[in-house]
Amino acid sequence: MIRIGYGNDVHRLEVGRPLILGGVRIESDLGAVGHSDADALAHAVTDAILGALALGDIGAHFSDKDARWKNADSFVFLARAVEMMKEKGFALVNIDSTINLEKPNLRFYIDEMRKNLAEVLEIEIDSVSVKAKTGEGVDSVGEQKAVKVEAIVLLQTK
Ligand code: MG
User: Fold this and answer.
1) Ligand 1 center to residue 39 CA distance, Å?
2) Helix and strand tally (H, E) in the chain?
3) pLDDT of the residue at 122
4) Rounded distance from Cα 127 to ligand 1 centre (Å)
5) How far away, in angstroms, is 29 Cα from ligand 1 center?
6) What pLDDT shows up at residue 143?
7) Ligand 1 centre from 151 Cα, in Å?
8) Average pLDDT, 10 consecutive residues per value, the chain (158 residues)
């Protein structure tokens, strides 16, 4: 059996916060605001996996009201979603994702994000796509108010 899953995530950007995407610390004047480490890529992929399994959303499993997840490494959420996926007898086929961020240019960070994701998702790096787009100066992304990520995953039974 195959299952498809979709996830997205938005975090506000502010001065004085770290910007972490796909487990990579990005050099940036603006960082993402969140209860955890605000890794929007990790959150979107987690939501996509949960979505493929019809297990609800990331907030249902890792509430932003829960003190345990304050400043948490979001790869903990991702690893837990992978565990749930395996418990249900599925493995990942591939993931595709797009980061919407006005700046900086993410080109030199992408492969490290892919490597980090491939490791936690237990798939080859060739099966992990991370793309990046700007907001062309308009809307919340273009005005540097937010980072937005969309992700889609395909699972299959082992
Ligand atoms: Mg989030």
Assistant:
1) 7
2) 5, 7
3) 96
4) 23
5) 19
6) 98
7) 13
8) 98 97 98 95 98 94 83 93 97 98 97 98 98 97 98 96
pTM of the model: 0.96
Distance (Å) from CA 86 to ligand 1 centroid: 23
Residues 8 and 149: beta-carbon distance below 8 Å? yes
Distance 71 CA to ligand 1 centre (A): 12
Residues 2-157, CATH architecture: 2-Layer Sandwich (3.30)
As given in the structure block, the two tokens for residue 118 are 């491939």
Give the pLDDT score at 72. Answer: 84
Q: What residue spans define the domains of the chain?
A: 2-157
Which residues have CB under 8 Å from 158's CB, separation 6+?
Answer: 89, 90, 91
> How close is the Cα of 152 to the center of ligand 1, in Å?
16
